[in-house]
């Protein structure tokens, strides 16, 4: 099962709060649900791309993120990123290594892709390595300088966490992450630099 399958799944609406919509979908051969969060607010694509390249500030908006490290910066806007995620006691902290990329989406949208690479580096002491995760962020410009942001992700946190507990906790991820993203993107005191190398691959208008 890959992210394309998740994107085509029959998403079930679960909750709306503070203009953030959360959906879930069954993933073939898994007891863990995939999730999707959707929000719209006024922001430019360039600012969103700048925010996503500012990995040092991810801890300000990614839900339960403990630490993050860029392990490799490759060609074609591809990165290998290590993340450690806080986990409720008594479970060990989760960590994952993901490969990310930047691509076009539809007529005028942008997508950030994520896929696990669990054997890229050894597991760090005391942590549990997530072996299967994939996701996709989609930024779609709408009217009046509004962008629709869709966050799709599937994470299998491991067999030691019961699926019902995992699925309940997963609904927090899209809501709090999108809320944090919106708050930071709308904070005019926050001005991340725009990565000029993006323009070598994708045309993004000023704004």
Characterization of this structure:
With 207 residues, the chain is of the alpha+beta class. The protein has a single domain, classed as Alpha-D-Glucose-1,6-Bisphosphate, Chain A, domain 4 (2-Layer Sandwich). The chain is built from 4 helices and 10 strands; from the N terminus they run H-E-E-E-H-E-E-E-E-E-E-E-H-H. Strands 1, 2, 3, 4, 5, 6, 7, 8, 9 and 10 form a 10-stranded mixed beta sheet that branches. A hairpin with an 8-residue loop joins strand 2 and strand 3. The mean pLDDT is 91.
Gyration radius, in Å: 17 Å
Mean pLDDT: 91
Oligomer: single chain
Q: Identify the CATH homologous superfamily.
A: START domain
Question: How many domains is the backbone divided into?
Answer: 1
In DSSP terms (H or I, runs of 4 or more residues), the helix count works out at 4
The biggest sheet, with number of strands, parallel, antiparallel or mixed sense and barrel status, is:
10 strands, mixed
Domain START: 1-170
InterPro entries: START-like_dom_sf, START_dom_prot, START_lipid-bd_dom, START_lipid_transfer
Pfam family, one: START
Organism: Prosthecochloris marina
Write a short abstract of this structure.
With 207 residues, this protein is α+β, with helices and mostly antiparallel strands. It is built from four helices and ten strands; from the N terminus they run H-E-E-E-H-E-E-E-E-E-E-E-H-H.
């Amino acid at each position: 099962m890959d992210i394309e399958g998740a994107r085509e799944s029959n998403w079930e609406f679960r909750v709306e709060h503070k203009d953030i919509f959360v959906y879930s979908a069954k993933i073939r051969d898994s007891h863990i649900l995939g999730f999707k969060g959707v929000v719209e607010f006024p922001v430019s694509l360039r600012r969103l791309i700048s925010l996503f390249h500012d990995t040092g500030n991810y801890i300000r908006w990614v839900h339960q993120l403990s630490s993050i490290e860029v392990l490799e910066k490759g060609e074609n806007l591809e990165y290998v990123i290590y993340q450690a995620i806080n986990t409720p006691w008594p479970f060990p902290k989760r960590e994952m290594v993901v490969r990310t990329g930047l691509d076009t989406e539809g007529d005028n949208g942008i997508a950030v892709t994520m896929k696990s690479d669990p054997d890229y580096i050894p597991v760090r002491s005391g942590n549990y390595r997530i072996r299967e995760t994939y996701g996709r962020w989609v930024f779609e410009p709408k009217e009046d300088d509004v962008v629709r942001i869709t966050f799709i992700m599937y994470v299998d946190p491991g067999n030691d966490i019961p699926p019902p507990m995992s699925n309940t906790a997963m609904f927090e991820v899209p809501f709090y992450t999108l809320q944090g993203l919106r708050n930071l993107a709308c904070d005019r005191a926050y001005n991340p630099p725009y990565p000029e190398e993006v323009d070598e691959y994708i045309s993004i208008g000023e704004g």
